[in-house]
## 1
Amino acid sequence: MLATMMYGPGDVRAEERDEPTILKPTDAIIRLSASCICGSDLWPYRGSNPITAPLAMGHEYCGIVVAVGSEVKSVKPGQFVVGSFCISDNTCPHCQYGFQSSCEQREFMSGAQAPLARVPLADGTLVATDELPPDDLIPSLLAVSDVLGTGWYAADAARVQPGSTVVVVGDGAVGLMGVLSARQMGAARIIAMSRHKARQELALEFGATDIIAERGDAGVAELKKMTRNVGADAVLECVGTKESMMQALECARPGSMIGYVGVPHGVEFDGQQLFFAQKGMLGGPAPVRRFLPQLMDLVLTRKINPGRVFDLELPLADVARGYRAMDQREAIKVLLRM
Ligand SMILES: [Zn+2]
């Protein structure tokens, strides 16, 4: 089969690889209905993470189960499933508390930018639908697997409530999903920080009420102006740079929460500054498994359409072009067809 491998910064190839097989009795093999490229795939692509051996790329997936190991009980061949990019048993204490992304048996999914993928701990990781979903819902169901689940977690961790004033820092795919999530949670005001017209328009479509195009201190000043100099009730940080994290902290009012889901690179905090700021932070890899049933239901009943976030569709063979387009910000998020 054709699968996506990253050999080094800027070097992504679709090449012939062996099909995955059941390695453990708790594994499942799925045939992907579609795959996609994640913003986090750009960290190694841009050289921010060292690559010591070729990486089997791809961690967002949904599709049909084709085989299961002897111990798998909750899913069977022929079923359509969505899974989290974090592999979890869904039974350990952390899973029970709803933090499946800190599972005692945690693994990170890989190899899903390919037609077939192996999913470890299938019982704990996958959720099946009652019937096969219609084709037009595939992009939205795929989005649930990571990008929507992560945006949702940012809003959940920031404790967005009905009536909240919410700021979303970052207009990438996750930030846009954060806007959609805050809207679903009943936020009254959702302020998206974005400088790009196409992304601003999508943010408004997903439920943003205001746009701030300024960045850094100027962006914070604009936000303060909008909130009687108080700041926001909840802030979603969806980038992971030092600048975006500082912007998030300064936009949050004392007593509020920041949900941060951009993988931090080069971010450091000053203890005393944090102490006197009186702002809470909860982030990390999203426990998407906690949200899967609810988010899949919202998609299947057509209450949300997160698949709108894909603005470029390519065949898997052109995956290198997809990475380039996201790296150059020519595309928000790329859907890969098998
Ligand atoms: Zn667990």
Note: Residues 223 and 251 are 7 Å apart (CA to CA).
## 2
Amino acid sequence: MTHFAAIGAGFSGAVIARTLVEAGHRVTVFDARTHVAGNCHTERDPESGVMVHKYGPHIFHTDNERVWEYLNQYTEFMPYTNRVKTISGGKVYSLPINLLTINQFFGEAMSPAEARAFIEKQADLNIEDPQTFEEQALRFVGKDLYEAFFKGYTQKQWGCSPTQLPASILKRLPVRFNYDDNYFFHKYQGMPREGYTAIVEKILDHPNISVRLSTPFSRSQVKDYDHVFYSGPVDGYFNYELGRLGYRTLDFKEIRTDGDYQGCAVMNYADESVPYTRIAEHKHFSPWEEHDKTVCFAEYSRTCESGDIPYYPVRLAQEQTMLRDYIKKARAEPGVSFVGRLGTYRYLDMDVTIAEAMHLAESFLELTAKNNPVPAFFNEPI
Ligand SMILES: Cc1cc2nc3c(=O)[nH]c(=O)nc-3n(C[C@H](O)[C@H](O)[C@H](O)COP(=O)(O)OP(=O)(O)OC[C@H]3O[C@@H](n4cnc5c(N)ncnc54)[C@H](O)[C@@H]3O)c2cc1C
């Protein structure tokens, strides 16, 4: 029986391990942390009993039937629709910007067609070929909505002016001309009844999977396994010898009180003068539960330094150059494939992570059955 290693007990490592053991192999899963589920980890807060999303709010949403069915083997999904509010200039608005937001912001009662015509008038049509995030936003929605809802929030989230970010971040018109405030368009959306960690524990619950928590894995151990799937940071694998790929990290400031703190799960703060980007009140992610006490976390975004948890890859021109060099090194490294959000330095939603993990483990089995070489990347980082 061949023996593989999956580094990281997040969705990437767990789904790969499960697929391989079901094909008759043995897998050891390593994680440097004390728990499984990676950044999707959830645990009950001992004081309030609330299920807390330890590394920030996670809402499951997908159009992928296979991923949806896969997860439903391991959990019961409870109905949950992500509806976000934002405070701008001391007033509360509905997000994503929709007809309610527009009518409240401009103090009007416009119909969809009237609002569309109105926003078209606001748009700065002098900008013919938007190059930056700011130009793109001004071109789409005009100065007033841009300054109220995008400028400060984007500055806080990315730690730089929207004039320094590429236009591609804002791909399409970020406005809805109806009252739909469901954040996601996907067919399936929900929250696992017992949290994400319970799902990952069940995926990993197989006699041929051994899980080693609190155990960092290093490059020198690769030779001990028939193949390694590495879902840790690609630059970390090489001990940052070419430098650190840029990430944003988050600091969470805890807020505790009785009852209901803000009346919704996520309240964004659009103004630059407020130092945090949003407050998440975690009891509202489990609306089927009842808790007298509440716990919330205000999120502060900043540059990720050595020792911080990497959250969002920055991926600007400078990082892309360094990434290309790490990709070259990774391709020359025998016996290891780089997977998942950190291994490929991409932002990936959970459903994409799971779909990629299933596909790559299946491709791996096909390749090795035919004695074909295994690539360093099944999903290209660039
Ligand atoms: C703030 C935030 C909010 C998000 N919200 C959503 C959401 O609402 N919906 C959604 O679909 N997705 C969301 N995501 C994305 C989601 O977190 C990812 O899709 C998912 O975590 C990717 O899983 P992964 O296994 O690739 O990586 P991770 O979950 O990061 O797992 C990697 C694991 O590898 C371990 N590791 C790293 N290096 C080593 C090493 N050398 N040795 C041993 N272990 C190591 C780490 O400890 C970690 O546990 C969000 C992401 C962020 C940052």
Note: The chain has a mean pLDDT of 97.
## 3
Amino acid sequence: MIETIPNTSSTETLETTLLRATDITHAFDYTLFENINIAIREKESIAILGVSGSGKSTLLHILSTLLQPNKGKVYYRGLDMYAQNDKKLLEIRRKEIGIIFQSHYLFKGFTAKENLKISLLIASKKINLDIIKKLKIEDTLPKNVSVLSGGQQQRVSIARVLVKQPRVIFADEPTGNLDRQTANDVMDVMLEYTHERKGGLFIVTHDEKIASRCNTVYRLKEKRLVPVIL
Ligand SMILES: Nc1ncnc2c1ncn2[C@@H]1O[C@H](COP(=O)(O)OP(=O)(O)OP(=O)(O)O)[C@@H](O)[C@H]1O
Ligand SMILES: [Mg+2]
């Protein structure tokens, strides 16, 4: 029997929906967003646009299990994430979820290769050189990350997430430091990955050209997620 996900229509099954968030509301000093509903299916890419300070990074943190919202639920393959104990949450976060942060937190003082190895160790996976080649960072592997350019560091941080083979990727302005050509190459890698692994990709960006390459585009505006046609 195929188990259906709570709060979904009967045609939607665990086979296709990877992540679903319902009625998400969150405030810090002021309410960032209210009653947001969003879901991602296998092979789907979703872009989120919005002005600085609208809450895009916060929403991504909530969807990616890093921040419990004031209200609402996040289901990962039918599992209510914030109802799980810490051990289970950590296990899912390590193995199934990949987060590319807005400021790439590489371990300074280590080489690019060492940075990749740490991630692989945590997820118990082996390195996939294919991804390294596609991101054109083979030459950076023996170098200390502190001597790499901003764009190289950004690609190492993307590689670090992809090599651990997560099912759902959350990328917060992953192409911010990159020229148009390299940004497009990075998008190729992430979209191809999502398709091949039947994964899902959430990407926050200010770049409408990058957003337009995704299946679905939203703008975070006036506390709501508004669908956008680009
Ligand atoms: N941990 C926190 N504690 C308090 N306030 C926070 C916290 N994180 C974010 N905020 C506030 O929430 C608002 C939204 O921040 P967020 O980083 O989600 O915006 P953003 O849309 O990603 O912006 P940008 O495009 O500049 O990255 C900001 O006013 C920010 O100061
Ligand atoms: Mg942000």
Note: DSSP finds seven helices and ten strands in the chain.
## 4
Amino acid sequence: MSAQRQGRVVVVGGSVAGLLTARAIAPYAESVVVLERDRLPDSPAPRGRVPQGRHLHLLLSAGLDRLRDWFPGIEAELESRGAVRVDGTGAWIHQGGAYRARGDWGRPALSQTRPLLEHVVRSRVAALPGVTVERGVTVTGVTRSGRRVTGVVADGRERPADLVVDCSGRSSRIAHDLAQSHVLEPPVTHVGIDIGYTSFTMRRAADDFEGQFLVCSDNPGSFRGGAVLPVEDDRWQVTLAGVHGDVPPATDDGIADFAASLPTPAVAQLIERCERRLRRRHLPVPVEPAAALRETTRPSPRARDPRGRVEQLRPHLRAGDDVVCAAGSRPG
Ligand SMILES: Cc1cc2nc3c(=O)[nH]c(=O)nc-3n(C[C@H](O)[C@H](O)[C@H](O)COP(=O)(O)OP(=O)(O)OC[C@H]3O[C@@H](n4cnc5c(N)ncnc54)[C@H](O)[C@@H]3O)c2cc1C
């Protein structure tokens, strides 16, 4: 063990933020334990505790660069599992009432489902020396000695730690516990955005669409949008979105009507072509599991802390990603 490696770290939450936090800390810590309440699937699959995982997620090139540095060969691994490189040459982006010009972005992005990305990152992190990912473990709060955080309580058991990193997402129990016990009550700002999504996947064929991917958003007079991206297993992932209660329906007919109402017909045409192909082969029409999600609020990360409590807790407790700032969601 290297002389620099010191201390036991507990990371709460084994989703994207928790896994990447574990990777960042691993070279410096004696041990890193990631505690995840879900009984994580052994293969890439959406999971109930991360409902946004069913919706469209694109890995932009800066994120890909970081993953490449941390996990050598991960790009090739993702591609071998069906991830698709996309760039501006094949982009159909309908914005401001017209299609944007196409051109080489220089750096491609990688398109795959969020579950595949998380699955591959998780297997890489679990293989790191000194890192353990424990599944099906629920953290209910932190243990403290005075104002110092000394560990967590997980499934009723104390787990000591020199550093706790809370990556348990938008509904952090640690934050709730600290607020309930009046230890740390950062004010939260809610910004109503009221956007609703419906997402699904469809089988992809080479002649479905001459572009690589399709985005329709920010069009004058329309508060509806849609995006279609190629993902693993020869599928298109489609996400439709509307605002102020205009949540896209999650039924075949409702999806077709909503897509047809977008400022460009291309999304509806693509869905129709996929459906037609299925009908020709006498296969059921058309969507794999649809999922709807409605975002309503966004907490602000700028918490005022007049008594300096954050500073006292900070050396042993940190928070990451959606714990700090998230698009709050409830089923649509
Ligand atoms: C519709 C939609 C589309 C999005 N698209 C993109 C995109 O294209 N690109 C992008 O970068 N981001 C996107 N985001 C945002 C992204 O999904 C989130 O920012 C990201 O998932 C946050 O990751 P996280 O690890 O902080 O939290 P989460 O992914 O929510 O994970 C929290 C984890 O903690 C676990 N957990 C919770 N409580 C406990 C507990 N008490 N004990 C143990 N474990 C616990 C949960 O089971 C879960 O695994 C999108 C979000 C939405 C809603």
Note: Residues 255 and 285 are 12 Å apart (CA to CA).
